[in-house]
Amino acid sequence: MTKAIEIESFSYTYPDGTPALSGVSLSVEHGEKLVLIGPNGAGKSTLLLVMAGFLRGTGKVRIDGLEVNRANLKKIRASLGSCLENPEDQLFMPRLFDDVAFGPINMGLEPEEVTKRVTDALETVGLAGMGERAPHHLSAGQKRAAAIATILSMAPKIITLDEPEGSLDPRHRKNLVELLKTLPQTLVIATCNMNFAAALAERVVLVDDGRIIADGDPKKIMWDSRLMAEHGLEVPGSM
Asked: Contact 89/95 with Cβ under 8 angstroms?
């Protein structure tokens, strides 16, 4: 069977010559909930951008069996949806309905199917009946949920999320954890919040200095105090 994500010996250098990723290899199964942890500047966000085809480097990247290249980009972005670090970057229409409908409309779906997808997506993220609301009037937690709805409406197999808990208070963070746990899609989540990671991760990949340092059981990695300290992180529960 094809993997959800396959990355082989991938390296990427920023235009100014700074190395961002060095020889990264990573395989993600369909249905996995994988959390990328690491300090700020470790390469986590860059790795998510590579998965979505926004950055090109050396090495191989495959999404649901398709090699990431210009010819496959449209199909890949139908399979993989990206939630950006700032949800307001994905909310730009006057009504929430229009934001969530934007993807399905551009997929060429019929109006009835678009409406169904929007309704289902808003219900899934706890925003049922709020389609007429202006996105800028939503709370931080509601904006994060709305950004996820814009991805869910396109029915991707894989969702990547960059620091999704940022700016959320404890109540909305808990709500987000519960939402993400219920989603059937493959999830790849980047965060430097160890408590958030511990609440979600079935598998953890520690990234630092553009390299994969550790990959496996969250308990063995995240509760290794020496390993965490070496990479500027804390064990869950110590913050």
From this structure: no
> Token pair for residue 109?
């779906």
pLDDT in tens, 60-88: 999 999 999 999 999 998 999 999 888 88
75 touches 69 (CB < 8 A): no
Which residues does residue 58 pair with via DSSP β-bridges, in sequence order? 11
Predicted confidence (pLDDT) at residue 238 exceeds the cutoff of 70: no
**How far is the CA of 20 from the CAs of 5, 7, 55, 82, 122, in angstroms?**
19, 15, 11, 20, 36
